[in-house]
Amino acid sequence: MAKRALVVGLGIAGMSAAIGLRRAGWTPVIVERAPERRTGGYFVGLFPEGRQAAVDLGIADHLHTRNPEQAAGANAWSVDRRGRRRPALGFLDQPGEPAAVLRGDIEAALWQSITGVEVRFGTTPVEITEGADGVRVLLEDAGTGKRYSEDFDLVVGADGMRSSVRRMVFGPHEEYLANWKAMICAFQLKEQVPTYEASDSVIIARAKRAVWVFGLADHAPTALLTYRTKDVQKQFGGSRVERLRAVFSGMDDDPVVRHVLDSLEEAPDHLFDSVHQVRMPRWSAGRVVLVGDAAWCMNLYSGMGATSSLRGGAALGAALREHPDDLAAALEAWETGLRPFITKHQRTARLKQQMFVPSSRRAEALRSVLLGLARRIRGRRSATEAGGSRASALSGTSR
Hints:
Elements: E1 4-8, H1 12-23, E2 27-32, E3 43-46, H2 48-57, E4 76-79, E5 85-87, E6 99-102, H3 103-113, E7 118-121, E8 123-130, E9 135-141, E10 147-152, E11 154-157, H4 164-169, E12 177-188, E13 201-206, E14 209-214, E15 222-228, H5 240-247, H6 255-266, E16 271-278, E17 284-285, E18 288-290, H7 293-296, H8 305-322, H9 327-356, H10 361-398
Parallel strand pairs: 1-2, 1-11, 2-7, 4-13, 11-18
Antiparallel strand pairs: 3-6, 4-5, 8-9, 9-10, 12-15, 12-16, 13-14, 14-15, 17-18
Helix pairs in contact: 1-3, 1-8, 2-8, 8-9
């Protein structure tokens, strides 16, 4: 009889884990507190490790990527304090050349691949109790309020940064959430900023405040508003739109900022949240394991959330296949193999935060200098490679 696993959360981490479990011969059951599956979502960069995990999970053929074609010249622009736009290095110009996708693109690809997996919407775990041979979970149906118990061989917490599974099994959020004293708001724009090409990206990074517009090939851009604050809790009071208008007051004379703020009022949904990292000494306890943001949230600045969630789910399945009769050994091997990758990108996220939203005017100026230098180096390298290609072509025709 196949072993049963309860996967809590229908996001990227949860569905990746479910596919990994099924490939290892397990029978996963997914519970999701929302009444239906989310669609759409904000911009995500998928790095090589994430693309490889998509191949390992068998979803690569379903994954729609949206990288803009490089037109003549750059299609990423930085706008300075005088409103002047200059060619810039955008998010997609990072090492590893991430693929541009929407969060919903990845979830749609995963959804197509979990056909046959039982999914229960409007359902949450209320209590988790481990016994000698399994885990008993008390579940609640949000629609009826009915509670019922069910036994599983493994529980996978894939329910995000403020994971209920982590709280019930490992302890309060405060023990694991590192507060970065910053806020983010991400959403889809209805249309591109006027005077920019459809797939252009635009960056306005000021001291403690920044606006990013991420251009896509066949879809309206998405926007990111991010800022630093000493009082995170205060940011959740009152209207979010009014809060953001107040925070970006003084920048909204720029047409890009004004367009993004106006678009927020019309957006059907958005992500507005504080920025944290999850730091845990271990990601499993007995027959309960955490994956994705529940275990190691690297935060939006790292750019590695989707990549690490896909990789985590694929690696979990591989470890269970390698240790089919020893769950403890499988979880140990999984964490040992994955933790160096997670630790590396959690550490580099601090530097990336300065790239997204500089901490001061001095950091803003240094950021501008460093990115300008990087762009010139990249330009020279591209010119050298192009010259080498022409020389090879001419050499080939002369023979």
